[in-house]
Amino acid sequence: METVFSNSQFIIQKMMKKIVYILFILFLLSPSLFAQSEVDALRFSREDLHGTARAMSMGGAFGALGGDQTAISINPAGIAVYRSSEVVGTLNLSQEKSSVGNQDANKTRFDMDNLGFVGYFPLRSDALPLVNFGFSFNRLKSFDKTISAVGPAASTMIDYIADRSAGVDPVKLEMGDNLSDPFITQPWLSVLGFNSHLIDPVNNGARYDPVNTFGETAIGEIRTKERGHVDNYDFTVGTTINNVLNLGLSLSVKDISYSLESDYLEDFDNGGYTLTNWITSSGAGVSAKLGAIYRPVNFLRLGLAWHTPTWYALTETYEAQIDDDMGAYATDPNYEPGQTYSAVFTNDYDLKTSGKLVASIAGVFGSNFIASMDYELMNYSRMKLNVPSGSIDDPTWYDIDNEYISMDFRPASTVKVGLEYRFTPQFSGRLGYAWMQNPYETTFREKGDAAVAGSNTIFRVEGDTNYFTGGIGYRFNRNFFLDFALVYKTQTDDLYPFPNLWNQNRNDLVIDASPFELKNSSFRGLVTLGYKF
Known about the structure:
Layout: H1 2-28, H2 31-34, H3 38-43, H4 53-57, H5 69-74, E1 86-100, E2 103-122, E3 130-142, E4 145-152, H6 157-164, H7 182-185, H8 188-195, E5 199-202, E6 207-210, E7 219-241, E8 245-268, E9 271-294, E10 300-307, E11 311-325, E12 338-341, E13 345-352, E14 356-365, E15 369-379, E16 384-386, H9 399-408, E17 411-422, E18 427-436, H10 442-447, E19 459-461, E20 465-475, E21 480-496, E22 501-502, E23 509-511, E24 516-532
Antiparallel strand pairs: 1-2, 1-24, 2-3, 3-7, 4-7, 5-6, 7-8, 8-9, 9-10, 9-11, 10-14, 11-12, 11-13, 13-16, 14-15, 15-17, 17-18, 18-20, 19-21, 20-21, 21-24, 22-23
Helix pairs in contact: 1-9
C-alpha cells in the first residue's frame, strides 16, 4: 500500500507541476525564460569517454594508476606518479553513425582531442620528494552528429501545438508592421502555428482546433545537424608523501561551443509544412578536482577523487520559422503558402552541473601486467538552471525547470575496466570496456513527456552507452613513445519529434509523439605521441 500511495503521490505531484508549468509559459513567458529546459541542462552536463590513446584503449580506467594525462583529468593525484617531465598530444579520427530504420546519417571528424604537459620538480626531502605541475587539454564531448528519421505519425505536431496553445489570446498572436512582435511575449509554437494557419481559435482562444486534415495520416520527418564541443583545460599540482600517498588538486576551465539546425516536416496527401529551428550556445565554466591515490602494498593502488560541479555562464541565440503549404486544408479562403519566422533572439543564463565521485582500484603485477577499474557516480537531479548573477530578470524564472530536473533525473553510474600486458619492454597490448548508465528516472523514460522550451521540440531520451576498446603501445626509447587505440561505441535512444501528452492520471496517451528508435554507433581511432625528458 505504501508503494501504491507513493506512486500515486508522485503522479499527482508531477501532473500539478505540469499544469503550473503550462500556465507559467502562457502568462509569464519571455525570451530569457523560453530558451532553456531540462533537455538543455543535460546536453551540457554529460561527458563522453575521452583522453589519450593508452587510457582509451583501457576503457578510461586510469583513476588509480596515474602517470598519464587522462589519469590526471580523472584523479589529479595521478600527476604525482611522474618521475620525469612529459609532453603528449593525441589525434582522433572518428565516424559517428545514426540509424533510424533504413535512414542512415554519418559524420566524420578529425581533431586533436588531447594535449598536455607535466613538469617534474624533485625536492630534497624523503617525506615530500617532489612537487609536480601540469597543464592538459581534453575534449570531453563532441556534438558533431547528423540525424535523419522518417515515419508515419500517430499524432501530428499540429495536435500538439493546438493543445499547448489553449488559453492564449489570438489577438496577441497576430503579426504585422504596426503590431508588437508576438515572439517577445507569446509562446513561439502558438505564434508559428496560428500565423501558418495550422490552428484555429475557438471561443477567443479558450481552446484551439488543429486544421482539419480529414483524417489523413501524416508522414513525419526529422532532420537535425549538431556541431560543437565541450573542451576542458586542467591546471594541476600534486605531490607524494613518503611515496605511499599521492595528493593532487586541479583547477579546471571548460569551454562550450554548440549549434543546432533542426527540421521537422509533416507531409499530408495534398500539402504539408516544415518547422525549422536554429540554436547556438557558447560560454565557459569553472570547476575543481581533488584526488588521492594510496598504495597500501606495492602491487595495489586505491584512488578517490571528487569533481566539483561546473558553474557555466552561457549565451544562447535562437530563431525559428515555419514554411507552410496547407491550401487544401486551411479554412481561410484567402490563404496562400508562405513563411512565418521570428527574429534572432539572445539570452544569457547560468548552468550548474552535478558533481562527480570517482573511486578506483588497480593492480600492478610485476613489470608486465596491469588491471584497473573505475567507478563514477553523478547525480543529474542536482543540475540547476539560473538567471545570471546581477541580472534584472526574475530569479525564480527557472524554478519550475529545476523542479522538473529534480524529478526526471537520477544518479547515474559509470563503470570502466582495463587491462594492459607488456609483451616486451617496448611493446604493450591493451583491452578495455566502459558502461555509462542513462540518467533518467524510469517513469520519465517510459512516458517521454519532457518539458521542452521554445519551438525546438525535438529531443532524445538516451539509453545506456557501451564502449569496447583496445590498443597497443610502443616505446622507441626512454624518451619517445607512441600509443594507438580503437574505440567502438553503441547507444540506443528514443527520438521524439515532440513530447508525449498524457491524461490526468497518466494512464492513456492524449497525443502520441510516436518516438523513433535511434541507433547510434561510432568508431574512433586515436594516436598519441609522447616525449619524456
